[in-house]
Write a structure and sequence with these properties.
2 copies of one chain form a homodimer. Helices cover about 85% and strands about 0% of the residues of chain A. Chain A contains 7 helices and no strands. Chains A and B meet through helix 2, helix 3, helix 5 and helix 6 of A and helix 2, helix 3, helix 5 and helix 6 of B.
Chain lengths: ~220, ~220
Amino acid sequence: MRIKFHQSLDELKQRLLVMAGMAEQAIQRATEAYTTHELSTVELVLLAEPAINRLEREIDEIAVDLLAMEQPMAVDLRFILSVIRINSDLERVGDQAVNIARRVREMQDHPHVDLPVDIPRLASLAAAMVRKALQAFIEGNVEMAREVLTLDDQVDEMNSQAFNSLSALIREKPEATSQALSTLIISRNLERVGDHATNIAEDVIFWVSGNDVRHHASLEK
Amino acid sequence: MRIKFHQSLDELKQRLLVMAGMAEQAIQRATEAYTTHELSTVELVLLAEPAINRLEREIDEIAVDLLAMEQPMAVDLRFILSVIRINSDLERVGDQAVNIARRVREMQDHPHVDLPVDIPRLASLAAAMVRKALQAFIEGNVEMAREVLTLDDQVDEMNSQAFNSLSALIREKPEATSQALSTLIISRNLERVGDHATNIAEDVIFWVSGNDVRHHASLEK
């Protein structure tokens, strides 16, 4: 029974990793669509969403069944609760990718404008946060999880700079308003990806140490 | 033992209601600050945040302890898992109130502009969604939870109209850019409140019926 239980926990972890890979890929593709303006890449992101949602439900069902049938204690209980939370954050990362892809599609209706914001760099930082948070989860590595919290400050700073430079641009070139606003929203979508990675990192710390670190990080700022 | 367990479940529910009241009040105050431009109201929202965060942790601890010690089955297990999720959504509603309050404070640095967006109406709809979702939770009322999902379409629509009318305004009056962008962001913050209420409504349906409705609603659209 216990061996089977630990096999189930491993299976849960494996599926969560697949989920994380899909969420990360969705962000990468959405960013690629932003850079290349290729509608086929937008479509790829939209087509992948149902699969992400389906996997979220599957993982949730396995986790809830394990809680119901195995009634795990202490570290195993915290592990399963963390999976449930991380799963939900990964699905919302996928939602952000869909939001970005839809916004890129709308941008096609307006002429291209050079904008003073490095969306690929912001996206790659946000995706790296998700990847690092998941790696921290696999390894049960609290130090690595804490590094994610630090990266989030960088993402917030980049997003704040994007807001300032885009509002300055709009004032100078009102004809660029539409593209600038879309990029502003995309920048905020990426900031939210960073927030989800932060939530995941906090869950890793909760799982490993049993300490609830939420809000402590923000108090230290 | 069972009587004590059900007392603990009631206590959990009571605390979650307090949490919901605090989150809703934070949104109402942030909106009031937007309307009246009173910095003292901004401060009220910021000062209340640590209490919301603290209560989130307390509720989480009680829920996790109940799972660990009582090893509840079926409907009780789903109830406790729902509390954990709803708690997290309520805390994020509080975060949105803080975001709005901070944005209102920044708006003080720029001259007032009349904007074509009814933020109080959007806020009152979003707050009503949170209230209704919680009421559905208290009563275990699936029908009421489904009504929340319908209201979310209205919030999305209002937010989308806000985006369009604000971008039109910016093109006509570049000097209003800063205030218009801030209001755009506030409108999106309120949309996220609606999303959290939707999550809560879905959790109520999960708890009561054992069916996972997430993503089904969006398929029906």
